[in-house]
Every structure is written in C-alpha cells, then in structure tokens.
User: Fold this.
Amino acid sequence: MAEFKFKVNNEFVTFTKWEDIPDSFEFDHVILFAPYITERPHTQEEHDDMGIWPELLRSLMLREGLKTNNGNNIT
Assistant:
C-alpha cells in the first residue's frame, strides 16, 4: 500500500492513494513519500507508470518550498 504523509499545522495527514491528494491541499512539509511499487518483474506499462513518481515528488517539494520560503530552495 502507498503512503503519503504530510505535516499540517503540527499534525500529520496521511493519504494512501495519490489520487486522493487534492490539488488545493496545503501542507507545511512532506514527511513520507512512499508510492506503491508492484513486485518484480515489471511490465513496460508498470515501468512507465513508476516513471512519473520522481516528478510527482518534485511537484510536492516545489509546493512545500513555495510555502516555506518562496520556493528559493529548489531549482
């Protein structure tokens, strides 16, 4: 199972599906980014699906950076 944990106003909020995280969700920090990865061997389709995770993590980090210090910490 996947787990995406965030700190929001000194509390933790956890999602188990990426699709459940609203685009408008505001958080202070990404605490855990653990997408579900299927068992090996992987099909090409599974590799393609997994290939998006780094970009999705980066998008969260950018949102976090914008809130914490105007985005100056990520290039």
